[in-house]
Amino acid sequence: MKRRILLAISVALVVVGAAGCGRGRLARLNPVDRNVRQVSVEDYVDKMKAGWIGQMAGVGWGGPTEFRYNGVIIPQEDMPQWKPGLINQFEQDDIYVEMTFLRTLELYGFDVSIRQAGIDFANSGYRLWHANRAGRDNLRSGIAPPDSGHPRFNKHADDIDYQIEADYAGLIAPGMPNVAIQLGEKFGRLMNYGDGLYGGQFVAGMYSEAFFEDDMIKIIEAGLRCIPKGSQYHECITDVLKWHKEHPEDWTKAWQLINEKYQLNPDYRLFSCSGPEADFNINATINGAYIVMGLLYGEGDPDKTIIISTRCGQDSDCNPSNAAGVLFTTIGFRNLPEKFKIALDPWGKFSHTTYDFPTLIRVCEDLARDAVVNCGGKIETDDQGKECLTIPVQKPRPSDLEQCWEPGPVANSRYTEAEMSKITALLGRDMSKAISAFAPGWTIVKCGDDMDPGLRERLRGRENVLVTHPLNQEMGCVLSRTVKLPRDKPSMLKLVVGHDPRGDWDLIVRANGQELLRKTIGPEATTVGWTEVGVDLSPYAGKSVKIELVNEPTDWRFEAAYWAEISLLSRSRRR
């Protein structure tokens, strides 16, 4: 009876607002024209703002449990306690990655090319993992999208990455599922493919619906309409809906069924980066199931929703972040419990972005306005002077069905030399001070952040040692210098190099692009971790030559290069 009364009130509110756009938690189809939906700009912003708070609350609350419980339910006593200060999540990849996409849209609009989107993502400076990292590494090595996310080049293509960062796409596309889907085609393909892509489009589709609906089953079904039916992801979410219906009072029974089919059955882990039998499972599919578990069994309660999504385990900060974001969007900022708002630092800057919270909200509003107009909608003012978004109803058009374990052909997409010049992140860590102190006249580019590169006072028995590291698995760190070699005296390059005790690396020496030496620097080639290398430069006598020394990756294990000496020596000719 209580539910019927609330529903009647909400419908009445919409009818009253038919001349304009109404007000209240549930903005629905316009009773005058059922081909459009309407929501006031004020209510849209309130809900969108709540969606961001939900993401921050979910990832902050679940953060301490992330991947500490794999293939098991987190015990209730191990669930962290909420503290209001946890809302300030400015250093989380669950949050800051999608702001790179927002910035691209802010600068170039919705018509931005996927190649430009890839350049912007390649230039991001924050730490990444799994599909995000592999995709960005591909972009930086010249593999342009969509190939950067294709399984041939990205072994993490079915991982969770676009799913955890797709919230933005729904938050700027209220009632516009096709906008959310197409944003996935543009940004999700930078790092994902198949179910890895569909997970993000599903999440974005739920957000898009959450501005007009608060029934979680209907919201989840709306998300499902945004992805192809033949996918394992669609099958999984459909299963969760069925198992919730069969066990509405016991979420642990549904969890067991999910675990048996999507964790323990290798047929549903055909492209798992950790292997089909590992406890660790970062596939989008099973983690998407845990998002839905929170939404269904949370019954509209913020705490219960976050706790259940978290206790399902695996990526147990990302999943409650998505779940809380969708739920909070239905609730709206003004109606959220104070404990999720009271400690928010509005001026905190999200890592490696230009956004604080007020700027983020403004940019999202501006983009949503653009999206509405681009889709043939209108921004109107009602009789009370309030702006209203009038949005044409869209039938979702899902992406084509594809599977990471049986992928379609690659696009053979590569960045041009001009495009590569725009990827300034290829310069890597700024090592200018270190190289100037160690070897004046030399420069360093493409030095990665791993293993803390820089100048060491003492290392492995040597003093004043320079440490470098490859930029990524495909691209080595390059030390270079252009010199004019004497005509009358043969020249030689002398290097004293070493390696981390736990790994090795390939030393490559090039002169004017010609490879003169390739040598693995590891235990078999060194004495107490060090070796002296000499390279004859006499063929370049009297010429200007660009010398490049490359710290090339091998098997991506502790591949720091140790440089104890870099010298150019001249020798008298023998008579």
Instruction: Classify the fold: give the CATH topology of the largest domain.
Output: ADP-ribosylglycohydrolase fold
Structural class: alpha+beta
Structural Rg: 27 Å
CATH C-level class of the largest domain = Mainly Alpha
Mean pLDDT over all positions: 92
> In order across it, which strands form the biggest sheet?
4-7-12-9-10
**Count of strand segments:** 13
Q: Structurally, how many domains make up the residues?
A: 2
Oligomer: single chain
Strand content: 15-25%
Work out the helix count.
18
Name of the CATH homologous superfamily of the largest domain: ADP-ribosylation/Crystallin J1
**CATH architecture call of the largest domain:** Orthogonal Bundle
Report the span from N to C terminus.
108 Å
Helix content: 25-40%
Low-confidence parts: 1-19
Shape: elongated
- Main beta-sheet strand count, sense and barrel state: 5 strands, antiparallel
Written account of the structure:
There is one protein chain. This protein is elongated. Residues 1-19 have low confidence and may be disordered. By secondary structure, it is α+β, with helices and mostly antiparallel strands. Helix 3 (93-108) crosses helix 16, helix 8 runs antiparallel to helix 9 and helix 13 crosses helix 15 (318-331). It has helices spanning 2-16, 41-62, 93-108, 114-122, 130-140, 161-165, 167-171, 177-187, 195-210, 216-224, 232-246, 251-262, 284-297, 302-311, 318-331, 357-374, 417-420, 432-438, and strands at residues 36-40, 378-381, 387-392, 443-445, 454-459, 462-468, 477-484, 491-499, 505-511, 514-521, 530-536, 544-552, 561-570. The chain has a 5-stranded antiparallel beta sheet. Strands 5-6-13-8-11 form a 5-stranded antiparallel beta sheet. A hairpin with a 2-residue loop joins strand 9 (505-511) and strand 10.
